[in-house]
Amino acid sequence: MKTKWLLSSSAVVMGFLGLAGTFLPEEISKILGIDPSPVTLILLQIIGGLYLGFAMLNWFTRSSLIGGIYNKPVVLGNLIHYIVVFFALIRQLAEQFHFVYVILTLIYFGFAVWFTLVMRSNPFSKTVK
């Protein structure tokens, strides 16, 4: 399985979200219709920092052997993140429809499925016979 593509694309998506959350918290709160209070802005910046950290983790492990027991903490961390946020977005869509939520839900669903497949795969299944 091509895990380099998975971790690279995940790093780019998380890096983009992290930079946006870190440097554009007021604009994000206005787009989503959230009150841009100081608490909301600092939480968006903290979340942006978390996304940047995850993006760096994915970027620097993209060339490593991944799957099965190899780099399991990286795969599990990403899998849990994508599943939890996917369900949170589904819940939010049930309450309030917003085009941004739909796009993010589809992206998060795709990554959740992809990381699940990597978690259950064997990185040596095609190389060693």
Task: Write a concise synopsis of the structure shown.
With 129 residues, the chain is an all-alpha fold.
Model description:
This is Multidrug DMT transporter permease. Keywords: Membrane, Transmembrane, Transmembrane helix. With 129 residues, this protein is an all-alpha fold. The chain has one domain. Helices cover 75% and strands 0% of the residues. The chain is built from 5 helices and no strands. Helix 4 (72-95) packs antiparallel against helix 5. The longest helix has 24 residues, at 72-95. The chain is globular. 23% of the residues are buried. The model has no long low-confidence stretch (mean pLDDT 91).
Given the helix and strand composition, which structural class is it? mainly alpha
How many structural domains?
1
Mean pLDDT equals 91
Order of helical and strand elements: HHHHH
The gyration radius over C-alpha positions equals 16 Å
**Poorly predicted parts:** none
Instruction: Specify the helix fraction band.
Output: over 70%
End-to-end distance: 16 Å
Shape type: globular
Number of H/I helices:
5
Q: How much of the polypeptide forms β-strand, as a percent range?
A: under 5%
Protein name: Multidrug DMT transporter permease
Keywords: Membrane, Transmembrane, Transmembrane helix
Transmembrane segments: 41-61, 73-93, 99-119
Organism: Solibacillus faecavium
